[in-house]
Write a structure and sequence with these properties.
Blueprint lengths: L2 H12 L6 H12 L3 H25 L3 H15 L4 H8 L3 H8 L4 H17 L5 H4 L4 H14 L6 H16 L7 H9 L5 H9 L9 H18 L7 H17 L5 H15 L6 H4 L2 H10 L10 H11 L2 H6 L1 H20 L2
Helix pairs in contact: 1-2, 2-4, 3-4, 4-7, 6-7, 7-10, 9-10, 9-11, 10-13, 12-14, 13-15, 14-15, 15-20, 18-20
């Protein structure tokens, strides 16, 4: 079938008064046969009439299979044409994206999480009417889905959900802690949140440019734990790996990269946390046994303290402090905290 015939078939399907799943599948199959640029032009024709038609069908449909096929198609083209994300918001698509995300099989839910991530990452501030739909019920369903994903061997499902959490954190502005932080601590259960976020941080780049939101969420989890004197969602080994990552990233990031400031803030928050100064966190069993044999008081050697100090001293060198006074100020504050900890344990 030639390009002209394919376009004619597409126009015939689009002109129908109602679309069923077979129409949707045919429409998608026909578009896939076009050259990529031609397909994008066809999609954007008539002020994106085709996309608006699909959104309208999804909104009124009770067939979750049809809606899922629509969302899969939208995800592919929205990666190439950000105007489509704008259309989703203009048409208040959370009205059908949210309920369908949580009624389909959890493996299919990942398609809807991708849509959330595209929306969250392309908007600095969502309209209030859409933000109101990200309510307590939404958070309950999101965390329930995360608990289903946590035992999956494939990590792409839980990672996609973390990106949705980061996007939520980005868009929900509140006095004090975000509803997500409060929800996680209220249910006292988190879906492998420590290892999951560490796994993402270990990547060279986070998808959807969500590094700031990832660091913000980690920082708030530790801060809330310290403020309310309750355990955080990171195991001892997780925190050590997190410190290792922070040291590496502070060393590797370009000067004046705002991410460096956030990594320093997270490091400061971890040092404030009681876990960092805990003997169980810092001394291994061999050290403790040796102390007991010698009859001495237990000596705490704080985890990677020399490495931390070395990278902070570098940031305080005159050349660096002139170029990046923010990092210098933060590093001086952290050094004071470390020195104070060491003085207390002598």
């Amino acid at each position: 079938m030639g390009e002209t015939d394919i376009i004619e078939t597409i126009n015939q399907v689009v002109s129908k008064e109602f679309l069923d799943i077979n129409d949707i599948n045919e429409l998608i199959d026909q578009i896939k046969q076009l050259e990529f640029d031609t397909a994008l032009n066809q999609i954007s024709n008539n002020n994106y009439h085709l996309i608006k038609l699909l959104c309208s069908e999804a909104k009124k449909s009770t067939d979750s299979n049809l809606v899922t096929e629509i969302i899969k198609f939208i995800n592919v083209i929205a990666n190439e044409d950000k105007n489509i994300v704008q259309i989703l918001i203009e048409m208040e698509s959370f009205n059908w994206i949210i309920p369908n995300c949580f009624i389909v099989d959890e493996t299919l839910s990942a398609n809807y999480l991708t849509t959330f991530n595209l929306i969250f990452s392309n908007f600095d501030s969502l309209p209030k009417r859409e933000l109101l739909k990200l309510d307590d019920s939404f958070l309950d369903s999101l965390i329930e889905l995360a608990l289903q994903f946590k035992d999956y061997y494939e990590t792409n499902f839980i990672h996609s959900l973390y990106y949705t959490m980061f996007g939520y954190q980005k868009n929900i502005i509140s006095d004090g802690y975000s509803p997500l932080i409060l929800k996680l601590y209220s249910i006292k259960e988190a879906p492998e949140i420590g290892p999951g976020m560490i796994s993402l941080l270990n990547r060279s780049n986070l998808e959807y440019n969500m590094l700031p939101q990832c660091l913000s969420l980690i920082n708030d989890l530790f801060t809330y734990s310290t403020e309310h004197q309750i355990p955080c969602f990171f195991f001892t080994l997780d925190i050590k790996v997190l410190i290792d990552i922070i040291i590496r990233e502070i060393n590797n990031l370009d000067e004046l990269d705002p991410s460096r400031w956030q990594f320093l803030e997270v490091l400061s928050t971890i040092i404030d946390h009681s876990e960092y100064s805990s003997p169980n966190f810092n001394n291994d069993s061999r050290d403790r046994n040796q102390n007991k044999q010698q009859g001495d008081q237990e000596i705490i050697s704080f985890y990677k303290i020399d490495d931390i100090k070395n990278v902070l001293f570098i940031l305080n060198e005159e050349r660096n402090s002139e170029k990046d006074p923010q990092s210098s100020m933060l590093s001086k504050s952290i050094l004071k905290k470390l020195n104070k900890l060491q003085q207390k344990k002598r």
